[in-house]
Each structure stands twice: as structure tokens, then as C-alpha cells.
Amino acid sequence: MDTIYLDNNATTMTAPEVLQEMLPYFSELYGNPSSMHSFGGQVAEKIREARAKVAKLIGASPDEILFTSCGTESDSTAVMAALNAHPEKKHIVTTKVEHPAIKSLVEHLGTKGYRTTFVPVDAKGDLDLEFLFDSLDDDTAIVSIMWANNETGTIFPIEEIAAQVKKRGIVFHTDAVQAVGKIPLDMANSSVDMLSISGHKLHGPKGVGALYIRKGTKFSPMLIGGHQEKGRRAGTENTASIIGLGKAAELAAKNMAKENLQVAALRDRLEKGLLEKIPNARINGNPDSRLPNTTNISFEYVEGEAILLMMNELGICASSGSACTSGSLEPSHVLRAMGVPFTCAHGSIRFSLSIYNTQEEIDFVIEKLPPVIQRLRDMSPFWADRPQ
Amino acid sequence: MWEYTGKVKDHFLNPRNVGVVENADGIGEVGSLACGDALKLSFKLGSDNKIEDVKFQTFGCASAIASSSVLTEMLKGMTLEEAEKVSNEDIAEALGGLPREKMHCSVMGRDALEKAISNFRGQEAKKADGQIVCDCFGVTDKEIHRVVKEHNLSSIEEVTNYVKAGGGCQKCHADIQEILDSYKGDVKPKPAPLTNIRKIQLIQETLEREVRPTLKQDGGDIELVDVDGDKVLVRLQGRCSSCQASQATLKGHVEAKLRELVVDTLVVEEV
């Protein structure tokens, strides 16, 4: 067995069908989609198809889809567009558990004269909705809340939140990069104004994203120049990647229901196997409202980086909410916001699966990980003295 | 992913001397679960008053485990007077260098050793007195003063690398900066620029005295080829020439030593 990749919330394998769809646009079909000639026109046609496929995946209309370079650009574009559209409003609301694409941006804006509110979560990672709604006022320009958390997989009640926010006449954005392609989304019957998508999170290529912008939403571009994307984002299109994202969206729409069952079954098998074999382990997040591919498990009294590196020796790739792997020294801001105790937070591992994982791989992890944890625990000064 | 030397990986994957020495003469414990790393070091002296047995238990990342492991190897056979002189830089150096963000792992080793020796002597371990500056990691102003002074630190990032202070919520950054500012007047004046001949002499001396013995321990060696301004051109030999971690050795060990002891702008390149 070579590499067992269980880090799909970080990035996914580009689906072979996606790669095939992209390849001609790196070679013989290199026309500029903005050109007047048919050589470029055929590329423009493929981009139109891709736009329609992305729109279909989230129940939107094609002209509500803006292609960007990544999820982060989509997030920044959405927030800045809302702020520019309402220059008199200086309040931004988000959560304590956002991805840095939003968290760092809002923190930065907090130093530039904006008032910021970070909504807390409870022990399961669920949002304090009362706090959220109480924080809204006439000065609030935008509420930006992720659809599903990248570390725990916890899904937030975005439809309910968006409806309440819209009633107050406030722009609502959601960073949905972990949700798109994993759970059904239907913008036609939603109050969401803007929604961010990232290509490489759903078996598309890296370097491409999309932003859903509901018709009628006030918008100002970040990149000004040419007339691409109806003047909403200048710059020659990343054609091959956009076409790849389209194909990935098409595959996700077609296979989501079936694949979700398969991936969730593997995830549950992994979770059950590890919890049965490893004492003092616990799941982080809300198991009743969670992405089908994600589990975040804490192994008490051991540190995440050490687990990851030992797993790496076995060819198992996962991710850690531990401080040491992130360059910061504090454990994951998500787990800390949930009040996960330090005994657990430092030793948390995120396993995120995809349709390309097999039962054989999962069984390998269930067999190989318990001795790794035990080995590290035997080395830990806290293990022998743990409270019984 | 952190870039670890082969030695760090080896000591992490194959840690030496794990456990607690029975009937230990001295035990030192530092760190906590909240901090994310902790170390318990215990030793026993032989009849010749040299450290006969030494073991560790570590909760922490790869470099914390490797630092503890290599420290136990270094200590065996030392008198306590010799052991007292082991610095965190010695620990990092024995590992072929640590990423600068991980220097606190080597500091933890040194602190545990200090506590274990105090424990043996029946002395009360030095209390972490002073005012807590960093609430996240419980670091006091005195500890920050100590590392700033001992290591001539000049930035918050460096303080964090050494004692973790400021690595969490960052609310204490202003206080750490204040401590750093209080040392500004004490920063050692820059020495007069070296002549080329003196610089080359110092480079040669440093390679001979500080670098080659370490490399030779691993079956490797290094040859000085040329010095061109700040560029030090070297050739790795023996096992070092085929070692996958040779770049880490060059930058983390050779360059770091030359910068520390000759001129802090030197750049080491392999030819």
C-alpha cells in the first residue's frame, strides 16, 4: 500500500474525467475566449457550459456565477463588494470558527475602522444563533458564515440564518467551499446573496474558484481592467481550470447522493474502528449535523504533529488541529472556540475522506494507528498518571 | 511540513532512553498539557559521580521528542558540573539544527535538566517568579528577560521561538515588545568590519573547531573551497556528500555556526 490520502478537506485529487476534459485546453484549443474568431469562440462556448454546470450544482442561474482564482478570492470579493456597496455601514459579522480566508480578512478590516463581531460556538461546534441575531444592527454591512466547518465538518443552518439576516436588509455571504459537492444546495430557494466555491475541494483543479452572486446584489469588482466575466472580474480566463471546475461540478451533481452514502459509510467505519481500539479518544463536532466525509478525533495525552509524522511513515496522510503543524503555538482556533480541553485539543486529527478511498485503506488505518497512539502515550508523562 | 534533519527524524522515530529511571537521583519536570509540550527527565549517578542512567518522558511534537532523546544521549557519562553546561543550543546542534520555530523544544530540554540537577542537590527549583506576561503559555516577565538577555533576542518572533510567549492569542505582544525595548540600549555594538584575511581565518578556525568534529561523528566532513564576499563555498565529503539532509546540515548547522561566530551575513553554498 502506498499513500492513503485522508486529507480531502485540504485538497482533493483531480478526477480523471476532469483532467481529460481540461487537457485539450492546455494544447490545441488555446484560443482566447474573448476573441472574435471561432478559434476563441469554441473556448468561450466551453466556459459557458462550465458556468451552467456550476450553476446547476447549486441551483443557481448561469449568469449568477462569477469565476475567480480560488475560494479565498471569492470570499474577499464577496466581503469587499458588500462593504463597497454600503460605504456608510461599518459592521461585519462572522464566526469564531471561520477559515482564515474570512477570519484573517475580517480581523484585518477590524484594524481599518470596521467594527467586527465573531459569533461563538458551543461544545459541539454549533453557532450561538441568539448571539448572532442580537449582534445585527442598522450598521451591519455583511454577515459571512461558512456553510460547513473545514476542521470538524459541522454544518451550520445557513438557510435559516440567511433568511433572518435578509429580513434585516443585510447582505449574507457564505463560504461554502467545504459544502459544495458534498451536500445539496439550492440557491433558487435560498436567501443567500453570495456563496464561495473552490475547485480543488470537489475534485476539480487548484487555482480556480467561483462566486455565486444573487441577481440584484450590489457588486463592485476587485480586479478592474478588461470586460471579462461581464466586467465583474478583469483578466483572461483560466480556461482549462474553469472547464475542469465545470466537469467537477457536473460529476458532483450526478454522483453526490450515491457517493455520500459510500463515503459516510467509510468514515463511520473508520471512526468506529478507531474509537473501539483506542481508549481516551473522542469525536469533535456535531455528529448529527456534519459533512459525510469528515471526522475530527482527539487522542488524549499525545500531540498531533507527532501522530501525523508517525502516520506519515506508514503512508497515511491526514491533518492536525495541533499547534505545531500550523506555525502558531495555540491549538486549532476552531477547537479552542468549542472549548475542547487542552488534553484533547493538542492531539486532534482530522480525517477527511473522498470517493477514492477504499475499505481496505480504512482497515489499514484502523489496524496501524492504535499502536502509534499507544507508542506515543507510552512516551508521554501524562498517560500513566491520567485520571481513571 | 516542518523541515527536520535526519537526526531529528531518527531520534523522533527511534527515541533513545524512554521511561523513568528507577530510584532516580534527580527528576526534573517542565511544561504542561496546556502548553502542548512537557518533559520529565530523570537520572541516576554512578559510583564515579557521573550520570550512569538517564531517561525521559515527553508529551510533544517530533522536535520535542527528538530534543529529549538526544539530550539523554549527551548526558550519559557526564558529571553534573559538565551537564550543567549543556545549553539548548548544544541540544539543537546535536540534532543538526532545529527549525527556528522549534527552538523552544531544546529550551525545554535544558530547563528539565536544570530542574533535575536542582532536585538532586536538594535545592528548590528556581521558581518561575515574576509577573505572568503570556497567559496562554504562563510565561513570566523574568523568563522573557532571561532569554532576551541570554540569546540577545531582538524580536517578538524570536521570543516566541524560545519560550513560546506570544505564540497564542498575541495579546501580550505589546508587553513583550516593552521588554525587548528595555534591552535596546544593551544590544551589543556591531564589531568593526573584518578584513578579508581575518574573515577567512575565522571561517577556517570555526569550521575546524565547531563544524568538522560534529560532521565527523556522522562519518562526514567538509572542505572550505573559497570565500567570495559573504559567500562561503564548501564541499561536503564522506557520508555528508550523499546525505539527503545535507542542505539542512549546510544551512541549519554550518551556516548558523559561521553566522554566529564570524559574520551574521555569511551564506554557505555547496559546490
From TrEMBL, chain A:
InterPro entries: Aminotrans_V_dom, Aminotrans_V_PyrdxlP_BS, Cys_deSase_NifS_bac/arc, Cysteine_dSase, PyrdxlP-dep_Trfase, PyrdxlP-dep_Trfase_major, PyrdxlP-dep_Trfase_small
Keyword Transmembrane helix: no
Cofactor: pyridoxal 5'-phosphate
Enzyme class: transferase
Reactions the enzyme catalyzes: (sulfur carrier)-H + L-cysteine = (sulfur carrier)-SH + L-alanine
Record EC number: 2.8.1.7
GO biological process: one example: amino acid metabolic process
Protein's recorded name: Cysteine desulfurase
Source organism of this protein record: Desulfatibacillum aliphaticivorans
Lineage of the species this protein comes from: Bacteria, Pseudomonadati, Thermodesulfobacteriota, Desulfobacteria, Desulfobacterales
